[in-house]
Write a structure and sequence with these properties.
Three copies of one chain form a homotrimer. Chain A is an alpha/beta fold and 349 residues long. Chain A has a twelve-stranded mixed beta sheet.
């Protein structure tokens, strides 16, 4: 905020490559906030028509709207008409946001790094992080406090490993990977030989390999393979509290939303979306571009671009048809009764 | 247990403000346990009629029962008739329970506290806790080992932050808040701009603000807002392994049971109950006092005091009606067959 | 790999107590991998008929198959016919696997151990582990970095406690127990006295007691009892992200798969299987050997050996019957329409 001229309505409109429409009643914008939270000197945005009703109530004098938004700005407000108001707004928010915390290169005095670990000179290792023997940490990678990196694990360049993460021995993390707090990479898969005397543990001797540009949410878990590799494909994004079983392979650019579970040895194609709290049983194949809707439970292979819902998961249209027919049941029963009485009347004749 | 006279049946009855009914065969009670676990010198309690059958089998000579419990005490047992046996029993259990571990004021030598952090003199900071620049810790607040408090985070007075918690930069925690082990406050929300080339991260620039008297269970996650605030209202209680998405706002005094997920930008009213493993999709409003039953999946706005079940969640009565009609389907098919044959017989005539 | 003669096909076959069938084209096997991943000098195995189609494509020259596998080995491959190919393969994999990381006896200089804790001489305590007053750690037990062991907690012999685990005060862990990273033992149960003014916390004064040979997966939680004990029976195996409520008692040798939740005071018999994402409400009894299928929600007591599915969970056959009838609904509606028109025609005559 050192250069207030950056924060005139015209300057902000230019920054979005948008067009200022109407007269903004303030000369300097001081912050950025949602329609509901914005104050009288904030910029805000409308991306989703769903929130159109908040426009009249917002205190913000300046609003990013889609280029072709049909309404003119009302008295006391100006629009910035721009291509992608949501994306443009993010750029403006970043002008006002405090800078992210500095994580300078170097190893904190209270970090515990084994003498055989290889830490890039530009990496940052936080206090109480523990790096075991022969681990490798790439350039500019940040390892935050309380995180454990196991023996022979390899972390690529430009990764951001938040506090209290555990990465077990020999696991491999790509470039530009973000692991949020509490993530566990490479815990043993859930495998036992069971008989009448109980369950004897099957050693879990493989590893986890995380591709480039992957992000994994807080307290999510990716189990190491029984042998071989549990693999998360490049560009796949995983939300919080997700469970990925041993020997699972996900494709590239999947979206795996919070609290999803994928059981062992299942293969997920490219660009698959698993919505919140969905589950997939083990040893299945889910085709490229499939969408598993929230809370659905997949119990058999899915073809590419399938869209499924329910438990057991079925084609979304099939599920909707079933639901529609179930809703008709009272009517069906009434019709049956009527037919019976008409028939009885006929028989009496 | 230094003053055994405190532990006579009469003294314990007085402590509950209850009335001793019957003759207790032991002079000193030495412990407190459930009906099933109690030994011959323990006090126990009956709060839930469901457990009435355990009364005859319990070894406890002294039982807290509701004031109007219809049965008299059998030979060899005494009742304490009291207003709220469950609450009264808790008070007695605390007489026998070991005191909680001492957490004296001060910063452990093995804690890592940035020179710019402001730690109240009465606060306790445990070993291997890491407190970053400009963080503020209130009076009598306890921060246990292995916990990370990020830059500029503000923790109020009388909070209890258990081990291995992560609170990221700028988040704000109220007074008397309890965060159980492994909780993650302020991880990035799950937000991307997606197109054919993949998913590009939307910066998550906001914070989390936790109200007063909130309790959050082990390994639960509350994501920071995209911009603005993810807010947990005063007095709301959250169980273990719960996921709260970015920009969610919960009201006051909600109960959010284990493994619930609330997707981004949803607003939850006051006094809402979300039972175990329930889910709510994003951008919804759940009205005050609504009850979402276990495993239900809410896919549209709920009015105040709604009670819903199933996925997609529907009014509990609607769900029950559907289930009842589904149970009638075999009968419907039989009736259809019978009608058909009656009709066929009629046609032949 | 120092003694290559150990790795001839014949030596490997002998190791499995199996019979070599066919001529293996390589003299020394250099690794072990799955059918799909194996290279031209690896051994692999076929345990599940489901993967038979991969046999023709695998590059592995040596395959463990069941004793009675009907096909002869094709040109360029040899079978090892053996009793349990999966188990036998694990033994071979261990020949090739890197040894597990060494965890020598002793307390790391950067561990923080209270002077009153009793640590067995053969135990390993990692860096930044914190052991509180009067805790007891058994012989050969490994406590990894960042783990917190609370006051008066007792850990048995030969346990493996991974990083960033939290075990709260007074909890008791048996022998040969494995706790994966992020596990939380003994957090407060979720209990409140609620009225119009809000929710007041019920103290959670009991403990958790974990039996022998129990394994608990990453980021799973077992809450301490309100009073008395939350108990996990000997030999029970728990996967990742599981929630066990206060005062739950599980029997011996149960299998509790990822993301299951068991609410407070429920009793689970011996040998029960709870499949992924299943839930059980509070205060129930689940009989010995019951199977709760994936995502099922148990809302009433289950008899021994029950097999249930759905929410609310019902006998698997009942659920299948309902589903079959629902699928018939379009046909039912069509029949109704036809009957109506036949009847109308008849009435006109």
């Amino acid at each position: 905020m050192s250069q207030p001229s950056l924060f005139t309505p015209a300057a902000l409109a230019a920054k979005t490559a948008g067009r200022l429409d109407g007269l903004c009643p303030v000369e300097t914008i001081t912050g950025a906030a949602s329609l509901a939270d914005a104050g009288p000197t904030d910029v805000t945005f409308l991306a989703n028509e769903k929130y159109g009703h908040l426009l009249s109530a917002t205190q913000a004098p300046l609003v990013l709207v889609p280029v072709d938004y049909p309404e003119p700005p009302p008295q006391g407000k100006a629009w910035v008409r721009c291509q992608n108001p949501s994306k443009a707004f993010t750029a403006l928010v970043m002008l006002f946001a405090p800078p992210p915390p500095a994580r300078p290169a170097g190893i904190h005095l209270a970090a515990v790094v084994d003498a055989t670990a290889r830490i890039a000179a530009s990496a940052h290792i936080g206090a109480c992080a523990v790096i075991a023997a022969n681990a490798v940490i790439g350039e500019r990678t940040i390892v935050m406090p309380g995180t454990f990196i196991g023996e022979n694990a390899v972390i690529g360049d430009d990764c951001l490993i938040y506090p209290n993460v555990t990465i077990r021995e020999r696991c491999i993390i790509g470039q530009r990977v973000i692991l949020h707090p509490g993530v566990v990479i490479g815990a043993d898969g859930f495998g036992y030989d069971s008989d009448a005397t109980g369950h004897s543990k099957i050693p879990q001797l493989g590893i986890v390999e995380i591709g480039d540009d992957v992000e994994i949410g807080a307290n999510s878990c990716v189990d190491r393979a029984r042998f071989g590799v549990t693999r998360i494909g490049d560009g796949t994004k995983i939300d919080n509290l997700v469970q990925i079983g041993h020997n699972v392979v996900t494709g590239k650019a999947c979206m795996i939303v919070a609290q999803v579970g994928i059981a062992g040895s299942t293969t997920i194609g490219n660009g698959v979306v698993l919505a919140g709290q969905a589950g997939v049983v083990g040893h299945l194949k889910v085709g490229d571009g499939a969408i598993v809707m929230a809370k659905a439970g997949v119990t058999k292979d899915l073809p590419p671009k399938a869209v499924v819902f329910g438990m057991p998961a079925a084609d979304r249209r099939e599920f909707a048809r079933d639901a529609m027919f179930i809703r008709k049941l009272p009517e069906i029963c009434a019709t049956l009764k009527k037919l019976q009485s008409e028939l009885d009347a006929l028989k009496k004749q």
